[in-house]
Amino acid sequence: MKRWLFIIGILIILILAGAWIFLLLASDETKRDIYNTFGFTGETEDGVVENIIDTLLPGLPPERVPLRQLTTRRVAGYTEVQKASSTPEMYFVEAGTGYVYTLNLQDGSERRLSNITIVGAREARITKDGKYAIVKSGDLETGVATIVKLSEQEVQSSDLFDTVIDFTITDENILLYTTYVGNDVTARSYDPESKATKTLFTVPFNAATILWGEGIDTAHYAYPKTTRELTGHLYKFEDNTIQRVAITGYGLSVMKAEDSLLFSKINDGRYKSFTLQTDSNEQKDMLISFFPEKCAPSKENSFVYCANSTELEDGSFPDAWYRGAVSYSDNIWRFDTRTSDATFVYDTFSAAQREIDVISPFMSDNTMSFYFKNKNDQTLWVYDLTFTDNN
Amino acid sequence: MRYLYIAFFLLASPLFSYAQFSADGMLGTNLSIQSMPEYPSPGEAFELSIDDYGGGAYGAEILWYRNDTLIPNTANARKITLTAGDVGVKEVISVVFKKSNGVTNTLKKEFTPMFLDIIVEPQTHVPGFYQGRALASVGSTVNLTALLSDGETLIKRDLVYLWKYNLTVIEGGPLRNRNEVSFKMPQDSYTVVSVQVSTPSGEILAKESTIIPLATPEVHFYEVNALYGVELKTITGDFNMIADSATIVAEPYFIDSNTFNYPDILEWKINNSAARSNSSNPYIITLQKTGDPGAATLDFHVRNTDILLQGAKNQIKINI
To answer: Where would you tag: which of A9, A261, A301, A383 has the fewest CB atoms within 10 A of its CB?
Structure first.
């Protein structure tokens, strides 16, 4: 009797030990998934789309408000994706991980589209059709660009052969980028579908800021990187020629609108803003000055929305701002490039009770939303322009 | 003999007087139109003045014309200010001198405004995330590129470039097809760089100059996040160490790239005691909390001992 009891006891212990080992191994699998997020620089890991993860943003106001914080995650890049017969969705790439999410702009829920880890993801662009995300990781000057194919069945990634310095995506879902070819900065296009590459133009200097056109064959612009200590000049690249545009000055910064160029430069020690009509070359002074990198043009009218604060009065701007030594609490303004009129739109600090230093602004295609990132924490925000008269 | 001298002087005086007149017989050859700047850019304001130190235009009525059209409100002016026309469009400025005896004479000056830009690219270190342009510091290499444009496109044909910084001619003389040159930044607060572009036959097409200010190298500290990389806000004053460890990078701005890559001095100090970077990147240090809470100072110093101004140091306080 005692022997049977002893054997049964041993069997029970063995079964329990087996179950414990099984659970232990299973939990190790889970841990491996989590730790993959925190690899070291330059690594990417392929994977498949996970189940839908819905997360309601904490603190999202239930009522409709003009200014909303869309993400608590840091955002490397974002775009509004319009798929057939649906309302636009916001796609964004998380900084640091390179994960791609879609965001429901109505209820604030997020869904992860890609779990391919791109460690150190800093800059990203997403095609308008939502099929590809181009994610740049590492150093902004020498980083690697990873192309992530977003698909419901399988998510794939591949690295672009060239080192990517500056990049954008056209409305036709073509990647435009600059790369070093020898000592020159060369602009190229890359079609993620056909994988075809084409050389577009070569910039005759290295420290260049590029203003990309809407398509491969449209005009692109470039000027030397901005500093208030040195002069800048604007060049237009079109039809295999380089044309000098009549825009020059210390601290030059330029933004391209529908039919005009908006630029700011230092006049008598202070930043001053101007518009130049691209068809007539007519130049006008703006009544209120702004910094073009904090502006986004409308695609439907002559309005440009800008974030503006006291930065232009600061004698060290923009150099100290680029360095991260100062930050600003911006308000939103609307400019009319035809009349040069400026209208105050919104005080972001009063609404958010925190400093919002606007970077990467973008106007939605329907001109209803002004999106931007807060430089202070890299989160994504939107200002609803339907709250503004005559948007 | 004395009479011979007087006779010779009297007979010869018309010859001296004639030397004061130009080919058609009225005004002095010393009369000319001066432009400041000499080769104005399109749309640039420039000043035209009559250089008449010989006095040949004395008492003459002066009329200014631009492409044969009288320039209003410039009658009898010896100095006028105009705005240069469109790029690549030739303009002729004429000055007509009318003497009281009815004799007239005309001086002409032709302009074809062109854009001549000097792109200044100092080869000093700035962090990869910095979106602005690097500035020049003492002894750093500065790359210069001249871009000449006639309005249609950049002119890349056979041209001769004469480069100068302050009073020094770069490489000692004109350089054929060399629109890109380099020089070492001198110690002056400001350096004036100029370029003159001409055809191989010597026709000057344009001149331009620009000022390069001397920057002082500086070091700024940034926290390094394991996931996100370098945080884009400088650590100024106190750094509160919340976690058990923190990684900090010292980012020098505007030190020469050679000094950045091969510094003679590169040192970290914690509370004035030498500390060692535990990273493959010597500009990064990882700190770990030990002992009781308190405060410590973190110093960083990088320098080229051959050019002592080619270096920088900074300090922050760390609250543990």
So the answer is: A9
Contacts of A96 in chain B (CB under 8 A): 225, 227-229
A226, closest residue in chain B (CA to CA): B132
Q: Which of A142, A101, A143, A151 is nearest to A121 (CA)?
A: A143
Give the distance from CA B198 to its chain's centroid: 19
In 3D, which of B313, B308, B222, B304 has the Cα closest to residue B261? Answer: B304
Mean residue pLDDT of chain A comes to 84
What's the first-to-final CA gap in chain A, in angstroms?
A: 90
Kindly tell me the burial class for residue A40, based on how many C-beta atoms sit within 10 Å of its own C-beta (0-12, 13-18, 19 or more).
Answer: exposed
* Other Cβ atoms within 10 Å of B177 Cβ, number: 12
Flag whether residue B13 sits within 8 Å of chain A, measured between CB atoms: no
Q: For residue B306, count CB atoms less than 10 angstroms from its CB and return exposed for 0-12, middle for 13-18, buried for 19 or more.
A: exposed
Contact A241 B234 (CB under 8 A): no
* A122, A242, A323: residue with CB nearest B220: A323
Q: Of the candidates A349, A387, A361, A310, which has an alpha carbon nearest to the alpha carbon of residue A78?
A: A361
Taking an 8 Å cut-off on Cβ atoms, the answer to whether A244 and B227 are in contact is no
> Quick check: ipTM above 0.95?
no
Both tokens assigned to A293: 């990198």
- pLDDT for B56-71, tens place per residue? 788 889 999 999 999 9
Please state, in angstroms and as integers, the Cα–Cα distance from residue A310 to each residue in A147, A290, B97, following that order.
39, 10, 55
Its pTM stands at 0.84
The residue among A230, A250, A355 with the most chain B CBs within 10 A of its CB, best to mutate, is A230
State the average pLDDT for chain B. Answer: 88
A299: left (phi over 0), alpha (psi -120 to 50) or beta: alpha
- Residue A274 clears pLDDT 80, i.e. is over it: yes
Most A CBs within 10 Å, among B44, B131, B231, to test the A interface: B131
Of B133, B152, B234, the CB nearest to A224: B133
- Please tell me if residue B133 touches chain A, with a CB cutoff of 8 Å: yes
Residue B189 burial (10 A CB sphere; 0-12, 13-18, 19+): exposed
Q: Minimal Cα distance from A325: which residue of B?
A: B234
